[in-house]
Amino acid sequence: MKRRWLSSLLLVLGLTAVLVAALAYLMLESPRTVYVVRAETKDFPREVVGFGRVGPRRELLTFKRSGIVAEVRVRPGDRVAAGELLARLDDAGLRERLESVRRRLELARLDARQSRERLRQQIAALEADLERARRDLRVKESLQKAGAASAAEVERARRRVALLESRLSALKRSLATDAEVRQARIKALEAELAGIQEALAESRLVAPAAGTVEAVTLVEGRPARGSVVLRLPGSPVLEARFSVADGSLLRPHQPARLVFETWPPVTLETEVERVLPVAPGTDWVTAQFAAVAGVPEVSTEFTARVTVEVLPRAVVVPRLAVVEEEGERFVWVAHLRRARRVYVRVIAENPEEVAVTGLRAGTLVLSRPPSDLKEGERLRFIEDPGDG
Questions:
Q1: Hey, what domains does the chain have and what are their CATH numbers?
Q2: For the chain, counts of helices (H) and of strands (E)
């Protein structure tokens, strides 16, 4: 009996020691205080960001066709009038083709007129012959009734009429077919002529309005890969530069927010007005924005945020919540008050938030996870949906 009581006492003491050790471990592992937000579902505006300034209105002028630059007539600083020739391509070959096509077109039109007149004369002659043949048939039919003409004579007259009618019908068809073929040929030559004239017009680079030449990158004797930048008078323009990758997503009429570097910051709502082509030797795309009231006079620099698409019902988390490690992205979530990694795929992003897959809406996500956080670490969190 005494031995059994001793065994029970030892068991109780052992369990007590284990419990004390566990409590000590839990007390030693103090929870880490972190901020969390809930992953939310919403329409996500994907934005691209560029940096710009308020400056003079510019026009980037380039040739619309390839070729070799024959002449550059302007230099930076030159003032030019509207319609003034700035540069031209070598167009000698085009002018030779132009004269050749003009001659062929004139000959084709002359030949069509002569052919039409010739066929009409033949038709008129046949119509006269047919009318005489019909009168002769009527006479012979009258004579046959009086017994003065034989049936064979009447039949010959009828065959003569039928033959002339067949010839006249064939000649009229020939006139229509000949006119159609020749007209198609004329139209083809006219189209070729118009194409050459358009190419000649595109071989001339002219000023769309009066202004001052700001830069010239065209070189005589070289392929026409450069441009002329013309600074135009008038109200200033809002323009920003974007990376080539982001610039490829820009389109006119996309909504934009311009945040000016003032205190407090001034934000203006506008839209993309035009996207300029990538200038040779540069690695950016320039976008110009529609004029808007309220541009601050004390600052000419701004950050442009353009919405290029909207993803419906996307799962969104703060941008700082996404951690990248060894080429993979994940977020830390608070699961049963423990830190746990959840790997995600970013499908779109803007400067403050990202849209992801692989994460359920409503999940508690660490908005600014500590860099030394470990899997399973105890957490004491403050839920702050408004703090991203």
A1: 30-44+313-383 (2.40.420.20), 46-63+225-310 (2.40.30.170), 64-86+205-224 (no CATH), 92-202 (1.10.287)
A2: 4, 19
